[in-house]
From TrEMBL:
<dbReference type="GO" id="GO:0031491">
    <property type="term" value="F:nucleosome binding"/>
</dbReference>
<dbReference type="Pfam" id="PF22706">
    <property type="entry name" value="Tex_central_region"/>
</dbReference>
<comment type="subunit">
    <text>Interacts with glp-1 and lin-12.</text>
</comment>
<keyword id="KW-0539">Nucleus</keyword>
<dbReference type="Pfam" id="PF17674">
    <property type="entry name" value="HHH_9"/>
</dbReference>
<comment type="function">
    <text>Histone H3-H4 chaperone that plays a role in maintenance of chromatin structure during RNA polymerase II transcription elongation.</text>
</comment>
<dbReference type="InterPro" id="IPR003029">
    <property type="entry name" value="S1_domain"/>
</dbReference>
<dbReference type="InterPro" id="IPR006641">
    <property type="entry name" value="YqgF/RNaseH-like_dom"/>
</dbReference>
<dbReference type="GO" id="GO:0034728">
    <property type="term" value="P:nucleosome organization"/>
</dbReference>
<dbReference type="InterPro" id="IPR035018">
    <property type="entry name" value="Spt6_SH2_C"/>
</dbReference>
<dbReference type="InterPro" id="IPR010994">
    <property type="entry name" value="RuvA_2-like"/>
</dbReference>
<dbReference type="Pfam" id="PF14633">
    <property type="entry name" value="SH2_2"/>
</dbReference>
<dbReference type="InterPro" id="IPR042066">
    <property type="entry name" value="Spt6_death-like"/>
</dbReference>
<dbReference type="InterPro" id="IPR023323">
    <property type="entry name" value="Tex-like_dom_sf"/>
</dbReference>
<dbReference type="InterPro" id="IPR037027">
    <property type="entry name" value="YqgF/RNaseH-like_dom_sf"/>
</dbReference>
<dbReference type="GO" id="GO:0008023">
    <property type="term" value="C:transcription elongation factor complex"/>
</dbReference>
<dbReference type="InterPro" id="IPR055179">
    <property type="entry name" value="Tex-like_central_region"/>
</dbReference>
Amino acid sequence: MDTIEPAELEEKLLAPMDKRIQLDDRPERFQLRRVPVSEADEHELEFEAKWIYQYAFDNATLSEQEESCLTVLSNPELRIDERAKIAAEAPDKIKEALKFIRNQLFEVPFIAFYRKEYVESCLVINDLWKVYQWDEKWCHLQQRKKRLLELMKRMLNYQMENDNAAGMRIVTEQDMNEVHGVQTVEGLMDVSTKFQLYYGPEVPKMIDWEKIQNLSEDDPEREAAEMRFRAATRTDKYMLCIQNGLSAMASRFGLTPLQFAENLDWKRHDIVQDDEEPLKAAEQYVCQSFPTPETVLAGAIHVVAKQLSREPKVRELLRSRYRLRLKISVCPTKRGREEIDENHKLWPRRYVRDKPVASLRHDEYLWYVQARASGLLILRLHCDTEEDVRFKKTLLQEFLSEQPYYRDEYSRVVDMWNKIREEAVTVCINNFLLPVFEREAHERLLQEARDYVIKQSTQNLYDRIKTAAYRNMHDDDDDDDDFEKGFGNGTRVLSIVYPEERDQASFCALIDQDGQVLDHLRLVHITKNMNSKKPGEANLKRQDMINLRKFIEKRRPHVIAICGENMDAYYLRRDIESLLHEISGIAKEISVEIVDNEAARIYMHSKQAITEFPNYPAMLRQAVSLGRLLLDPLIEYAHLCNTDDDILCVSYHPLQSEVNKEELLFALSLEFINRVNEVGVDVNRCLEYSHTSYLLQFVCGLGPRKAVHLLKILKQNDNLLESRTKLVTLCRMGPKVFMNSAGFIKIDTSKVSERTDAYVEVLDGSRVHPETYEWARKMAVDALEIDDAADPTSALEEILQNPDKLKDLDLDAFAEELARQGFGNKSITLYDIRAELNHRYKDLRVPYESPSAERIFTMLTKETSDSIGKLVMGRVMHIVYRKPRDPEERERVPPIRDERTGQWKCQYCYKPDFNNTNEVWQHIDSCPGQPVGVKVRFDSGITGFIPNKYLSDRPDSFVDPSERVRRNQPIYCRILELDPDKFSATCSCRSSDLRGLQPQNSEFDRYFDKLKCQDDDEKDKKLREQRKIVTYFVKRVISHPSFHNVTFKDAERMLQKFEQGEAIIRPSSKSVSHLTVTWKVADGIYQHIDIKEEGKQHQFSLGKTLLIGTEEFEDLDEILARHIQPMAALARDVLSHKYFLDGKRAEDRDAIEGYLFDEKKRNPQRIPYTLTPSQDYPGKFVISYLPRNKARHEYMTVTPEGFRFRQQLFQSLETVLSWFKVHYREPPPGSKHIFYRIVAKLSFYLLHFK
């Protein structure tokens, strides 16, 4: 173990922590929770139950989501009084569930199956899981509150015992009461930020003082909290104000922050008015950092605004108002307008203006965020609309209208102070609170959308694994005959998979009922067309069908599974069904099913598959998985729940990549836990067939580690679990884990009896829990009406053979007797025992049904009902003709003569090239009929039919569709109707439909901004028209290898393949007296330099004198040698420099600054810098450097004489960099100082009143 990397040990669940989890007598999932499950007293459980009901089941969401109420309350048929009764009982039921979870360490499935009496009237299993998850949130919240209270007490002790802390704000009982009253994470953050504001800088001093006093403790969580405050104690503007004594100036505003907050409920505190004018009062606090009264006043406003913004009551009130007014506006970027077409999910919502977030449905916000991350949308959360600003009804203005910080008294001094106080509130809301609220709203909306995606993903998984194991209709009749003929017992599945490329081999695998491979077959040409006209292809297909027929006759499968990859599956099923009809006696016995292939495709490339079948090709491994999927989807999907998390590769939702991987994995695991414990796990089968062992990790009380440990012990002891009691005696399972898991671990008692001589408990093969075995035996004895002294075991075996005798038992009386004996209410448990004795471990899942036509259609074509109205491109196959129903009708309709050409044409098919009527009558017998439309084929494999009336907006403008389309012509169509049974669609290619018809379920959003959309469309249209304008130039006759008669775009396209520094000389669009030289500065960057010609003989000749700026050249060679090549050499020096940032442009500021900050972290003593080329200004490079905390960017121009930097000329790159390293502190020429806006604003206010 010492030679293995720790990360690899953790991945293989072999780390020391994994060993501890295996041996600890607590459910594995309880130990792995972020906050492990802990015991709680009655008082805490009562508060927690009410809290969970309020926030988990009765809490409103910001966006429009599905109801978060109890599952039972989602039933619309419930009466009002029934709803009220359930709502009243719910907290008590939640409390009972919490008792089981926290105090008795029972997992949710155990409670749902074996403690129904305590929770069933209100809580189903999904509600119980929600209670479990919110218990973790509750415990985490209580831990954080506890740590904050401890920190407050330590700070108070530090203030009381340390003289140096005398000037600090004292921690009060009110502060601690605020922590006690916190009910949400947001509320705790509000209290925590207040503490951080006042005491954050003092925490390091307190810690140092405690160390001197020997009061510190070694607590990792405590140290983590302290480090958070240590990191937040840098000197910011607020601390600068406090250190310079501006808190005294802030106290003269008239109210303390707490008084201001309390006044928001009702004005219990009057504003204490200062007698001096604000500026005059500020003169007393002038210092070096704040040299003028205006700056002092600005600093005091900042202090007051900051303190107000940290008051929990202020934040709570304004947060609620903000969220009531919160709206979202969305518009596409330039790239978004190009990429978001009408088939895009966001097409009807790409322009949204002032939409209330309460109208955002389900995962809508996550679509917006994903599009913004892709650069397609601009998204803005805001609480004020343009109308609010225009009519002065913004959140700030409405709040100020309530005069929360206003003294109602007329005097010049009071008016000046009221203005200052109003400014403080304005800064508080606009600068401090609104950004925080926007960030909180964004995170909450994002989490709500992600929760919806997770919920839909688990529903998708449920739909995949809810089906029971496949049962053949003829199993009972044929098992004995099959065994005698050597076929074996149970269901046999023949799975067929084929590759996407038809020139590769397909494979068949024969799977028995235990998922083991009995035989396999390789078929190379099975997907080819039997009617193909290609030489030899039809014969190859027939030979494969013969081989398949022989295989079926030899192995006699009960069902054939075909992978549902594409339309080939549909044609293959048709061929196989025809083949089965040719085999006498088995056509009705063997069904042919198309099976969803996604999980099998994931499995075939997994490490797990390679380990299990190292010698099988990938397609054969896929065939094995496909057969197992049909046999039992739960086992095969659980097979993907391995250390590589292959289960996450399954596509559940289009946005699942935007969801946290751990959260999605946990939600999926809950679905597996529910289904696995519903079905039960045969441990002995897991030992015999390894691919089924992945179910064991989902058994109640167990997990991946405990499951592996259990199997390891059993493998060391004869690979056999004889009874449930052996879980304790042999496997050393603790009582808590045993109680949780025993009822869900089933034992095939008939098979175990064949392998051991020991007594086998028949109830071990049922859902009856070992704690109630005696009650089951008692029920058997009473049902048989025999003496209580009789052997209950034999009575139990007899009752299992004749369970009908249990119907006469009075279970209610039995339940009353148990209650009198102190066992509590067990009425539901007794009825469950009777049901189990009637049918041991009956599969409660949905019986298998063949997929519907709609399901197969969607599986093979990926089209759904939402595709109606969708714009797709197809390819014309042929013209569709319709023959007359009455054969004599053709003879009654005479031919038509074309007066223009003199030729005759058929009245039905409109063939026009007949010389006389005899030729027309001879053609009638072979006439295909009247053309009624066009048949097209789409990429999805379905065919489309376009009737004549949908070919054009003017159907009378043509007679024959062949006048409008031709064979194999690409054509855009709009889907009008889908027919899943025929895999076909009715389509339209009329111009009006192509322009106007919208896809189904894609009505424009109610808040769609049509004006903005039209405005952008007009701008894009004008831009496209401008791009269509061709740049004309006069072609020149110049003999030079670098001269080409091309446009600038053509020149850039040609230079893409050339080396850096190469140049092309071309005509200029200015006039015939100009040329342009285009040279390649770097990949994708080209500089265009104008050349003026003088001394021209005529307009086509080259001038005798060439000018670039004021510099003269004799010919083009001199320009290249003396102007272009020196610049190219200098550019190459930059491109090859060790600090040149490859692949980035100077305009990529975020990426460059990220690189610089990373370099600064690696070496804080060094000033990192980098060089990048400018895309916007070709021929310029940018030096980016990070002297302290802010990156700077300066341009450097390449000239033939050298580099021009800071208005100086340098001969080489080394000289410019050497000069730069010495003079980087000097401000660049032309820079200006920036003054505080708030100072100017205050000066205006104060001067106004003088």
